[in-house]
Amino acid sequence: MKAARFLAPWTLALGDVPDPAAPGPGEVLVRVRATGICGTDVGILSGAYAAQAGVVLGHESTGDVVAIGAGVRSVAVGDRIVIDPTFHCGFCRMCRTNRQNHCERKHGTEAGVSRDGTFAELYACDERFVHRLPDGLSYEAGALTEPLGCALTGVARLELHLGHRVAVVGAGPLGVLYAHALASRGVRGHLVERSDARRRLAADVLPAGWCVAASLDEAAAAFAPDPTPLDVAVDTTSVMIGPLMALMARGGQVLAIGLRPHAVEIDAGALADRSLAVLGSIDTLENTFAQALALLASGAVPAEALITHRLPLARLPEAVALLGCDIADRRLAPPGAALKVMIDPSAGEGAR
């Protein structure tokens, strides 16, 4: 089968790899129909996020069941499904205390990071990690389930009130999905993005009551003359925690979700005196993945509008370049006029 493997930073191999083995008991074999390019994929390719050399990338995916192992009952051959890529054993202390995203057996099981992922024609996994795709939800829209689930996981960590002043920094797909996740809790706010192209794209897909700002200063100016106007801030970039801390009201909460390493100095005394909270979040939980799928099926999130490009696997280097990751020149640049870029590993070489 065709697949895209990560060999080393800035080195991607597109070509044939062996098909997965026939599914064993409790296993499902999926023909992948759509896989979204994630910021984690860009981080791996650029060397900012560690992954196993030789691994097949990709983890935000949908497809068709093509074979099942003995004992599989929840899906049948021919079913359209969405894949939950966050492995969890269900028995360790993390799993039993609702922290499946930090399962103690997670090492070596992360799709597209430490085990082969879904930038491939076929993908095999345990029955527990596939869900039927609701009728009317396209493969591409369904592939947003995992990133939306990540946003719902992060939002669940926050104490939210309808009167809170909120900012989400970064208008990439995850920033937009965080706005929708917060809106599902009745919260309005500002999405902050310096890129003109990304601001224009985001303005068309934000939930009602949300605004786009070009900078934190612009977002804060909406609440002038209050010098510390923000109650809740989500940083998708990894680099804005410091500037955000200066704008947080007493009792404010900052949620960090970017995975790029970035050291920040925090005044512990001010943290206590101002009752501030700094939190992190990654991946999905069992309940947030299911909630995300239901939210997409309801039409509350404009999934199709978030998807700006659909390309076949053979054009993956071009696809990641749309998101600012130029493999040929080994450099990162601001993303162009793209939000969510989808790859269809089962398509021909032309764009759909």
The 3D shape can be described as globular
SS field, number of helical segments: 12
Strand content: 25-35%
| CATH architecture heading of the largest domain | Alpha-Beta Complex
The arrangement of helices and strands along the chain is EEEHEEHEEHHEHEHEHEHEHEHHEHEEE
How would a textbook summarize the main sheet?
Answer: 7 strands, mixed
Instruction: Note the quaternary state here.
Output: single chain
CATH superfamily of the largest domain: Medium-chain alcohol dehydrogenases, catalytic domain
Note poorly predicted spans.
none
Number of domains: 2
Q: Which structural class do you get from the secondary structure elements?
A: alpha/beta
Helix content: 25-40%
What's the alpha carbon Rg, rounded to whole Å?
Answer: 20 Å
Task: Characterize this entry briefly.
By secondary structure, this protein is an alpha/beta fold. The chain is built from twelve helices and 17 strands. Helix 4 packs across helix 5.
Which features does this protein show?
352 residues; alpha/beta; Rossmann fold; 2 domains; 7-stranded mixed sheet; 6-stranded parallel sheet; 12 helices; 17 strands; 25% helix; 25% strand; globular
